[in-house]
Amino acid sequence: MSQPVTKVSLTGIKPTGEPHLGNLIGAIRPALKLAEQYDSLYFIADYHALTTVRDPELLRHYSRSVAATWMAVGLDPKRTTFYLQSDVPEVFELTWVLSCVTGKGLMNRAHAYKAARDRNIEAGEDPDAGVNMGLYNYPILMAVDILIMETDVVPVGKDQVQHVEYAADIAGSFNHLYGDAYSFKIPQAIVPDTGTGHTLPGLDGRKMSKSYDNTIPLFLPENKLKKLVRRIPTDSTPVEEPKDPDSSAVFQILEQFAPESAADVVADTRKRLEAGGMGWGELKNVLFEVLNTELAPLRERYEELMRPGSELDTALAEGAERARARASRVLGSVRGAIGIDR
After folding, report:
1. Mean pLDDT confidence for 188-199
2. Is residue 327 within 8 Å of 150, Cβ to Cβ?
3. Which pTM was predicted?
């Protein structure tokens, strides 16, 4: 009796900043759960970062930092294929091939490009001012990341679904032309349930995002973590007055971040806030203790992985070998289909 075929899941992570709590809650934890259901691949999209990161040392640091973060919080390179995009050169050959079957009109409608044009027009500038071809062609490279690994599903946030739709459109264009010789899988987007119901707030109460410079980095030293938590704004409700926990950014972070082992702490804190007698300062102390208890062992693991020659290097090298084996097989089929045989 044949075994059911396991579907392939692909997750790409762009290294453009220090990982923060919002990344952990909204992206990392949900994506890692998929490894239990799929033949999973995770890659660091270092070439994608070139659209905005122009400092080579910073790019090296971010790429290693993001990779170390995923391993520190639970990615098992023995169970998944974990690699750097730049270690798979087949991706870039296929990018040219698929560029030749992709309509410019499709690229004109890409969200990131349209947003850049809209900002320029509002500012009275040339619509394409500051737009590089990396930004413009970004959806094609992302499509290749997906298609070259014969991906079935791609976990993305709601704002990233278009990228997977573009990958499906581009695959369809290729399949229409060359499908008798080789056809790409048509990928689907899945939007993981974070289990939170709403967005993790940042230091200023808005959505936690590098764009707003309001994040709580995952691996800050203990004293710096405490200072950042103390900076989260609160209102002037006196200690003795009842408070609405759900209107507090501090409590929202506590509720969404706290592990199951701290469920009683969260429930007790909610009751005390609603009853009155607990001040915002004490709430911030509770949040810090929960954060630090959870993050301290992850911080130690992260620092180990960041050292040169750590097991991170071995994991990425072995992952690149497995990823290239997949990519080479697909690229070989594509080359034959288009008439460029080795």
Report:
1. 70
2. no
3. 0.90
